[in-house]
Amino acid sequence: MFGEDWDKYFKEKYGEDAVEWRTKGTVKFDPLSNPKIAKEIESNPDAVYGYSPKKGSPLDKFGIDWTNPDQVASARAKRMEYLKDMEQKKIKLENEVAKLQSEGMSIEEIARKMSEKRNHDRMQSYIDSNNSEGLAAMKERNIQQYGRAEGPTPEQLFEKYGSWEEVIYGSVRTSPAMDVLTGLYKQ
User: Fold this and answer.
1) Residues with Cβ < 8 Å from 121, sequence gap 6 or more?
2) pLDDT the model gives residue 153
3) Cα distance between residue 95 and residue 123, in whole Å
4) 35-69 confidence digits (pLDDT tens)
5) Residue 27: predicted pLDDT
6) Please, which residues have CB within 8 angstroms of residue 51's CB and are 6 or more apart in sequence?
7) Which of these, 88, 93, 157, 185, has the minimum number of CB atoms within 10 Å of its CB?
8) What is the three-class DSSP state of 23?
9) Which residues of the chain carry a pLDDT beneath 70?
């Protein structure tokens, strides 16, 4: 098969938006200049999008061969769906925060409620999609980062972000390192 054949194959299998071709090793930006991203991934000229997780990093636990176009295209399609869902959740969250404030809840009370809701929603998304490996990887990452499988406590998030408002909107933040791995990172 030639380039056009592969292009057609992947677009039919994973959808038009899930396929983006780049010349191996060319990147328009340097995501490793972001310390948060550089902590989890490294340059890999053999990887589909030029990067792979660092050995032992939380993203390395997902079991994806980042040099395998089929596996990366599948991960990209799932990631696109996740990002779309998160954007919808952000809009819903903004409306919910406004409603709760109008009912008299403080920003801290809202932040505490939202951080626990995010922990629950993240776990539930893996359960709903029958992704037990992903759930196990997420729990292991949570234990490494926060000392508990459920995810961060509201207090840990406040310490990390410095304000309860940032804690609230942290519930709709996504991993820029995973976006790089799936070719979806936008600077």
Assistant:
1) 89
2) 94
3) 23
4) 989 999 999 999 999 999 999 888 888 889 999 99
5) 45
6) 31, 41, 42, 43, 44, 66, 180, 181
7) 88
8) coil
9) 1-29, 187
Phi-psi bin for 169: left (phi > 0), alpha (psi -120 to 50), beta?
alpha
Q: Is the CB of residue 100 less than 8 Å from the CB of residue 154?
A: no
Q: Model confidence over 131-145: pLDDT tens digits?
A: 999 899 989 989 998
| Separation of alpha carbons 6 and 11, rounded Å | 8
- Provide, for the chain, the percentages of residues in helix, strand and coil under a 3-state DSSP scheme, each rounded to the nearest 5: 65, 5, 35
Angle at CA 158, nearest 5°, toward 154 and 159?
Answer: 120
User: Alpha-carbon distance 178 to 53, whole Å?
Assistant: 9
Structure tokens that stand for 27 in this block: 């990147």
Q: 141 is written with which tokens?
A: 């990452």
What is the C-alpha end-to-end distance of the chain, expressed in Å? 34
At 153, the amino acid letter reads: T
Are 126 and 133 contacting, i.e. CB atoms less than 8 angstroms apart?
A: no
Residue pair 50/43 in contact (Cβ under 8 Å)? The answer is: yes
The burial of 115, by beta-carbon neighbours within 10 Å (0-12 exposed, 13-18 middle, 19 or more buried), is given as: buried
Whether the CB-CB separation of 29 and 48 falls below 8 Å is answered with no
8 Å CB contact between 7 and 15:
no
